[in-house]
Structure to design on (317 residues):
């Protein structure tokens, strides 16, 4: 039997635990020995690697985060530590790796492959949905649902108190979470890093709406925009003339019970990753788009900048 290991690296997302569960079950079904590497690449270096079975993944499917921990590892950026990581894998007879992470984690594994020939398959996992080559990254749907619940709750208080609420979402330089949340929550304003922050055109429009009876606003702003959420709240007070509050959603977007969609995607991503490794695909990323799942080479995925879907952008007036 061959040995296969899985690692969570970079930011954790909801959906990692369902992925770990299916990893163990599907690996055993394929007559592989599954191993967990704890705490990202740090665990590879520190030999925090354990053979696992069904009991290790019992009851984890409902939990956000990852039971094996995730980390960023400065040491893995250095050749001598990658050598130690390889020795640890060799001592356990592990020659196949699956990594749940972002493009930084994939770049690290690619270097590891080039130096030591350890086959790997990457599963895009980040709530930012900013990985080139895939329309979907694990964790995005759960994050969107948490944002939806938060906006719905904020709307209740905003409407009761006649206020403008500026809600900041995560996403780094990618406005995907903010844009989709805007389109699905009926907010009045959405600001994302991909578009210039042009507030002038909203000023008159919002004032007229207030004269016509509107008594609250919801604005969704992505963390990567050129202005701060507080700047936008100040603009509401000074230019539109309504009391305002800022609500930064923060890390609640990364946690929570994984949605059905993320559980299903976790299942499919893992199935494709293990099949790819068994079919001798050495260094690929499992991607998902309108044509379904495909394997893309690491070079395609990590060397290009993901652009926000132009069809979605068109909806932003
Ligand atoms: P997220 O989207 O959550 O930031 P990520 O996978 O992009 O996820 P990074 O912090 O960029 O997160 O990378 C995770 C880890 O991958 C790093 O801490 C480091 O150990 C490893 N890594 C990244 N780039 C390299 C590299 N060029 N060489 C070796 N290792 C790397």
């Amino acid at each position: 039997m061959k040995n296969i290991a899985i690692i969570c690296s970079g930011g954790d997302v909801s959906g990692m635990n369902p992925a770990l569960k299916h990893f163990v079950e599907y690996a055993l079904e394929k007559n592989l020995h599954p191993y967990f590497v704890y705490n990202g690449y740090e665990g590879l270096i520190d030999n925090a690697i354990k053979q696992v079975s069904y009991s290790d993944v019992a009851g984890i499917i409902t939990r956000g985060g990852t039971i094996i921990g995730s980390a960023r590892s400065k040491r893995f950026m250095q050749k001598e530590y990658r050598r130690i990581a390889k020795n640890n894998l060799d001592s356990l007879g592990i020659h196949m790796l699956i990594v749940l992470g972002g493009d930084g984690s994939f770049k690290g594994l690619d270097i590891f492959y080039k130096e030591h020939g350890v086959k790997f398959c990457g599963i895009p996992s980040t709530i930012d949905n900013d990985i080139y080559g895939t329309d979907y990254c694990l964790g995005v749907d759960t994050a969107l649902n948490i944002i939806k619940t938060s906006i719905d709750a904020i709307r209740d208080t905003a409407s009761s108190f006649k206020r403008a609420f500026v809600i900041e979402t995560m996403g780094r330089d990618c406005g995907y979470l903010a844009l989709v949340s805007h389109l699905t929550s009926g907010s009045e304003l959405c600001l994302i890093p991909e578009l210039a922050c042009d507030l002038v055109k909203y000023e008159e429009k919002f004032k007229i709406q207030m004269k016509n009876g509107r008594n609250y606003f919801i604005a969704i702003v992505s963390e990567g925009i050129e202005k701060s959420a507080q700047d936008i709240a100040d603009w509401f007070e000074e230019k539109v003339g309504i009391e305002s509050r800022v609500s930064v959603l923060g890390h609640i977007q990364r946690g929570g019970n994984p949605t059905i969609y993320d559980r299903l995607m976790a299942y499919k991503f893992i199935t494709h990753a293990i099949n790819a490794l068994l079919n001798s695909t050495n260094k690929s990323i499992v991607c998902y788009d309108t044509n379904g799942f495909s394997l893309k080479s690491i070079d395609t995925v990590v060397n290009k900048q993901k652009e926000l879907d132009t069809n979605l952008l068109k909806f932003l007036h």
Summary: The chain has a mean pLDDT of 96. The CA atoms of residues 24 and 262 lie 17 Å apart. The longest strand covers residues 94-101.
